[in-house]
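EI: anyone free to look at a 255-residue chain?
SC: sure, send it
EI:
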Amino acid sequence: MREKTRVRRMFVLDGGSFSYDVGLMVHGMDLGKKQPVATPFYAFDTEEGWFLYDTGWPQEAVPVLEAMGWQPRIGPENAAPEQLKKIGVEPSEVAGVVLSHLHVDHAGGLLFFPQARVYAQKDEMACARHPVTFQALAYQAQTFEVPGLRWNLLEGDTMILPGLAAVRAPGHTLGLQALVAELPESGCFVLCADAAYLVENLERDLPAGNAWNALESFYSVRRLKMLGALLGAPCFPGHDLGFFDAGARFARAFC
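SC: here you go
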């Protein structure tokens, strides 16, 4: 018998925004044109405590982004502890953190959760510790080599708890994992992270332009869309500011 979901609510948290090249997000589309993009991460109220999916940027990255011309709009209010306080949660209440991958804009808030169990794909950790040259800047060891973290390195699709399932979706990085969340009233959601940066990736079956492996990225987009169709679940892209703003999704409780 299928076990009932243990997830009660889901919140989309606002990790700030920055400008990024469209062609790096969607293969073959508007290379050289920048647009503002979001940095969402997620909080789940579960029967086993609060869980996060990703953690946003570290504040230390902001001057670097400014120097790169990425026009960051990332303030202290976008840090994970402040975003959690908006929904009445203290960092000490977080029992687990699921990381889509270990790029700095996703793992940047790990240091706030030393008590949490942290879930990442085993090969993603290997890639982060020994990155290929063209992805080295996106991995910053100080964000994930935090003393005391309780790592749970996964090997493939894994049920984190009933209602939260990590789904391998490589391509953008070697070990990226999406998350399928099941809520008691709204049903399932497929959270794509950087497997699908924008709505256009999903609508047009296009891989990321900056993918570690473009073919794997293409397969992952198709797989997540198929999961969404089978589950009757919306697919949330990883960085589409228009998608999150238009639906007034930030800080909203999905039940």
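EI: The mean pLDDT is 95.
SC: 👍
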